[in-house]
């Protein structure tokens, strides 16, 4: 069986699955049970400064979006950082790390944007024996209004500054957790590495209102008739997180820098995808909150089965291997031409492909009186919409036209050479090929 | 041959070959991948799941279903087989309606459980069809264990012991391994030679020698086995059959249901297997239902199950009763046989109505006669001869939780041992647990 042992910033864990800083890692009781269930590491729930801890609302903190059969697809929360005393958390971290030396424990921290505040807390965190720290520059609600969390994460200069303080007062790895509530994710990542961060982790939650109570006419979760925006996470945010991870992985300024991926990771497959896109490991929150700690067993068995099938002996063999395959639109091969094909044996004749193509795409699917659906190659632009809406897996597939064949839509012969938009005659800025 | 459903007597070929073939097809056809995905999606991944508790082998059901849902049926199979090495057979024959699926929260809430049995089959079939055996043996311990009987209990015990590094010799009285998986289970539950294929697959672990035609009490004795092995596991099932105690029981046409089923299971061309025009099955359990349904599927015109108590007391589950009814079997309750009539061979059976007086069942005196050229006795099996000195509990070998018998170095499990229901899955669990205790004893 494949070896899932993963080394991230020199921190070894038996598998690449860590729990993200959030309620699952809020206390010793949880973390011990998580380790017993098999999690490779945890990022402890974010600690604040010494003094009276923050208080949370006393009504509902979460809102949700569902798929069919009430499957939770997105979760929104208005929780703050830990609301337990600093010393309690530090004592617990010390105890757990001592009992689980083979698991990673990272301490998440969010204190005011003043050097003194960081100078105070870092030696106390270092004394716990934890393996590293994560700077929470991401929380989008409650803390941002106090000049912390995403209020810092949205200003690259602050990120660099605080990271530098941390490198000054703390000797172990420093991970900077990024907020996605920003236009260009590469900027805060660059800023973190400029401040000598050892890694970035992303994403934290996305500003959101999940739903509105139509009786109260107020956002949900509703607290005494009012609601506020919260942080969105869970399966729904995965595509956004995946893009952001890939953007940082392929940015020449940050290419090859360690990334811990977070955002909607629910199955072994999600984890593998993030790692292929450049993440050295992954962090999970919503999936654990939805199904319990036990899901890590599926992540472990699934990833190792996939690795065995692909012949990867260790996670380092596939981490980042897909990054060179992420490119800009203008470099995609315009001579790569496909046509949709409907497998008539697999087709159940629901007609969804027809509705999609006829009403909203290119009128390239024909329908006979006895409900036979066929692709008309002279109209099909290969958009893939029919494939995506078909309820039967592999019923509609994309067939690649071979060089020399005629594309019936354009009546042109398929060229064997790669050609992209930068050289296309329709592009006003096109450069003639040499 | 020209026989039909109405040909008198006990004859073969009552139905055309293609009808018979169709009749004995898979009761629950295998899932296609898309069906499996849809079925798996219905599982809620319950915490401390009731289904898992209800499974005698405690398979981690939520985990294996999630593994199917996430596209790794092979990992799902490993999860199943870790707990239950005959997970493939159990997926086909377990009365899930009274085990895991009965307590599925979706059964309780909606009357429609997650189809755990079929999902289990999807996973194990995927792995076994690929010819993979996901277990390897530990370093040799130098210890040797004798397993007597190659049914589910014996096979499960042998596999676990072999995996732990022990050498195992299975002594089996019959010429073929599998026990009731091979000779008892209804043909439509495990068609296409699955039982044989599963034994071959299980043996891939290595370290297990199968000796057929070796009956305890005949070719081999317990003292002999104890001399040549470090431990003995008895898994000899129930080889005896209860007597009917009805007049004319010895008439031709009166047979044990289990013998009929065993013959059926070993007949490759079912158009050659004779069956009566009018069949009456005495009993109320799974064996009675299986004998009745299979008689009907072979082409018997009239098949009746005669059970001596009321429907609520019938050991066959509601699902099994419905299966019988759907196949056109008539269920009669509160009747017991008093005589089989005929001139040398059975022609009619005389049944007497019964009533439960509170202190037992008595005949009311009122009788009814049914045409019956074939009568199957399905009134329970009993333990055959047991080794000298072994303590019995009721009519079974007395064992503790981990299968220890009253004799030092001798364990027992499955149908022959006390405790647990007489089910394939229970036999597997007992074989496995005894293996763990034998292992602890031998290396501890
Ligand atoms: C007709 C019928 C249908 C059934 N259907 C189902 C079903 O659908 N689902 C279900 O869960 N359960 C079913 N059962 C019950 C199930 O088959 C048994 O509970 C299970 O097979 C018990 O396993 P075992 O290993 O204890 O015994 P067995 O399967 O009986 O195996 C015992 C083995 O020991 C051998 N043996 C016996 N005596 C000796 C000896 N002296 N020396 C050497 N070897 C010996 C036998 O030949 C046999 O191979 C059915 C039973 C019957 C009879
Ligand atoms: C209830 C809740 C509380 C959270 N608290 C924190 C926190 O204290 N610190 C932090 O860095 N991230 C926090 N997060 C964000 C998560 O760590 C994670 O980045 C985010 O949920 C995306 O991952 P997911 O899709 O797996 O949930 C919290 C998330 C949730 C749902
Ligand atoms: S999960 Fe439910 S029961 Fe538990 S604290 Fe939250 S609201 Fe209360």
Describe this structure in words.
The complex is a heterodimer of chains A (434) and B (444). Chain A is an alpha/beta fold and 434 residues long. Helices cover 28% and strands 20% of the residues of chain A. Chain A has helices at residues 28-37, 86-99, 115-126, 150-153, 156-169, 186-194, 238-250, 268-276, 286-291, 295-310, 352-360, 385-389, and strands spanning 6-8, 11-13, 17-19, 41-47, 62-66, 72-77, 104-109, 132-136, 174-177, 199-202, 206-208, 211-213, 218-220, 230-233, 259-262, 281-284, 338-342, 365-367, 373-375, 396-400, 406-407, 412-413. Chain A has an eight-stranded parallel β-barrel, surrounded by seven helices. In chain A, a hairpin with a 4-residue loop joins β21 (406-407) and β22. Chain A is globular. The termini of chain A are far apart. With 444 residues, chain B is α/β, with parallel strands linked by helices. Chain B has three domains: 33-129, Fumarate Reductase Iron-sulfur Protein, Chain B, domain 2; 144-239 and 383-443, FAD/NAD(P)-binding domain, CATH 3.50.50.60; 242-377, FAD/NAD(P)-binding domain, CATH 3.50.50. Chain B has helices at residues 17-23, 33-41, 50-54, 61-69, 73-83, 87-93, 100-103, 105-110, 116-129, 152-163, 180-183, 194-203, 222-228, 257-266, 286-298, 318-326, 424-443, and strands at residues 10-11, 144-148, 167-172, 208-212, 231-234, 240-241, 254-256, 275-276, 278-282, 302-306, 330-332, 335-341, 348-356, 361-371, 374-377, 381-382, 392-393, 396-397, 410-412. In chain B, the strands form six sheets. Chain B has a five-stranded parallel sheet with strand order 4-3-2-5-19, with helices on both faces. In chain B, α15 (286-298) links the parallel β9 and β10 (302-306). In chain B, α2 crosses α4 and α4 (61-69) runs antiparallel to α5 (73-83). Chain B is globular and about 65 Å long. Classes of the chains: A alpha/beta (434), B alpha/beta (444). Chain A binds chain B through residues 69, 71, 267-269, 291-292, 294-295, 297-298, 301-302, 305-306, 392-393, and chain B through 33-34, 37, 41-42, 45, 47, 60, 62-63, 66-67, 70-72, 74-75, 78-79. Flavin mononucleotide binds at residues 20-23, 45-46, 75, 77, 79, 81, 108, 136, 138-139, 177, 204-205, 233-234, 237, 262-265, 284-287 of chain A.
């Amino acid at each position: 069986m494949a070896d899932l042992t993963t080394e991230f910033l020199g921190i070894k864990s038996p598998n690449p699955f860590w729990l993200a800083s959030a309620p699952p890692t809020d206390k010793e009781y949880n973390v011990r049970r998580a380790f017993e269930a098999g999690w490779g590491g945890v990022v402890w729930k974010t600690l604040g400064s010494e003094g009276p801890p923050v208080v949370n609302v006393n009504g509902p903190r979460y809102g949700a979006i569902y798929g069919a059969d009430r499957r939770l697809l997105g979760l929104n929360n208005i929780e703050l950082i830990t609301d337990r005393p600093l010393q309690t958390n530090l004592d617990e971290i010390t105890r757990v790390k001592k009992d689980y030396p083979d698991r990673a424990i990272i301490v998440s921290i969010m204190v005011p944007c003043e050097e003194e505040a960081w100078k105070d807390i870092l030696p106390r965190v270092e004394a716990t024996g934890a393996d590293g720290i994560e700077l929470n520059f991401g929380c989008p609600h409650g803390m941002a209004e106090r000049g912390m969390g995403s209020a810092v994460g949205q200003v690259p200069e602050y990120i660099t500054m605080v990271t530098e303080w941390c490198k000054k007062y703390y000797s172990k790895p420093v991970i900077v957790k990024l907020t996605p509530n920003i236009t260009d994710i590469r900027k805060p990542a660059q800023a973190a590495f400029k401040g000598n961060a050892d890694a970035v982790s992303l994403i934290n939650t996305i500003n959101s209102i999940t739903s509105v109570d139509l009786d109260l006419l107020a956002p949900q979760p509703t607290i005494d008739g009012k609601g506020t925006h919260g942080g969105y996470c869970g399966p729904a945010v995965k595509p956004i997180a995946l893009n952001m991870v890939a953007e940082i992985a392929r940015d020449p300024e940050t290419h090859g820098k360690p990334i811990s991926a977070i955002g909607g990771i629910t199955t072994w497959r999600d984890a593998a995808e993030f790692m292929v896109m450049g993440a050295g490991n992954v962090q999970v929150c919503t999936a654990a909150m939805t199904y319990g700690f036990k899901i890590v067993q599926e992540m472990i068995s699934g990833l190792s089965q996939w690795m065995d099938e692909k012949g990867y002996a260790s996670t380092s063999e596939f981490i980042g291997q897909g990054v060179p395959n992420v490119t800009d639109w203008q470099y995609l091969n315009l001579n790569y031409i496909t046509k949709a094909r409907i497998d008539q044996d697999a087709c159940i004749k629901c007609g969804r492909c027809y509705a999609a193509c006829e009403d909203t795409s290119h009128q390239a699917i024909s329908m006979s009186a006895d409900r036979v659906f066929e692709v008309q190659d002279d109209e099909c632009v290969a958009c893939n919409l029919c494939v995506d809406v078909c309820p039967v897996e592999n019923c509609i597939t994309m067939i690649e036209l071979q060089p020399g064949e005629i594309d019936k839509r354009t009546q042109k012969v398929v060229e064997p050479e790669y050609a992209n938009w930068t050289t296309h005659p329709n592009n006003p800025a096109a450069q003639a090929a040499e | 041959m020209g026989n039909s459903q109405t040909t008198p007597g006990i004859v073969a070929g009552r139905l055309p070959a293609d009808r018979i073939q169709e009749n004995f097809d898979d009761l629950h056809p295998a899932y296609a991948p898309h069906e499996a995905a849809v079925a798996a999606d219905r599982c809620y991944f319950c915490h401390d799941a009731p289904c898992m508790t209800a499974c005698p082998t405690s398979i981690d059901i939520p985990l294996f279903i999630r593994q199917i849902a996430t596209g790794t049926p092979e990992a799902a199979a490993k999860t199943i087989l870790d707990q239950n090495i005959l997970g493939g057979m159990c997926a086909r024959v377990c009365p899930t309606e009274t085990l895991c699926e009965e307590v599925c929260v979706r059964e309780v809430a909606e009357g429609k459980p997650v189809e755990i049995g079929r999902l289990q089959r999807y996973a194990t079939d995927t792995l076994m069809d690929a010819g993979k055996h996901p277990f390897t043996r530990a370093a040799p311990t130098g210890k040797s264990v004798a397993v007597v009987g190659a049914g589910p209990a014996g096979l499960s015990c042998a596999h676990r012991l072999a995996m732990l590094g022990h050498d195992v010799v299975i002594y089996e009285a019959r010429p073929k391994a599998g026990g009731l998986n091979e000779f008892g289970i209804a043909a439509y539950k495990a068609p296409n030679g699955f039982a044989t294929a599963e034994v071959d697959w299980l043996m891939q672990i290595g370290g297990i020698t199968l000796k057929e035609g070796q009956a305890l009490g005949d070719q081999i004795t317990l003292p002999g086995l104890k001399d040549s092995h470090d431990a003995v596991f008895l898994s000899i099932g129930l080889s005896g059959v209860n007597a009917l105690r009805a007049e004319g029981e010895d008439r031709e046409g009166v047979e044990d249901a289990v013998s009929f089923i065993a013959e059926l299971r070993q007949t490759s061309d079912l158009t050659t297997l004779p069956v009566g025009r009018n069949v009456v099955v005495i009993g109320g359990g799974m064996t009675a239902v299986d004998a009745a349904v299979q008689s009907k599927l072979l082409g018997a015109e009239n098949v009746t199950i005669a059970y001596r108590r009321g429907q609520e007391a019938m050991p066959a589950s509601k699902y099994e009763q419905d299966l019988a009814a759907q196949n056109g079997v008539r269920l009669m309750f509160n009747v017991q046989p008093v005589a089989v009539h005929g001139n040398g061979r059975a022609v009619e059976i005389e049944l007497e109505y019964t009533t439960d007086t509170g202190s037992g069942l008595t005949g009311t005196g009122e009788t009814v006669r049914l045409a019956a050229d074939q009568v199957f006795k399905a009134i329970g099996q009993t333990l055959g001869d047991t080794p000298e000195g072994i303590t019995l509990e009721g009519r079974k070998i007395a064992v503790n939780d981990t299968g220890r018998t009253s004799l030092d170095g001798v364990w027992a499990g499955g149908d022959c041992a006390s405790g647990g229901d007489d089910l394939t899955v229970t036999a597997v669990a007992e074989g496995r647990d005894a293996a763990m205790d034998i292992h602890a004893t031998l290396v501890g």
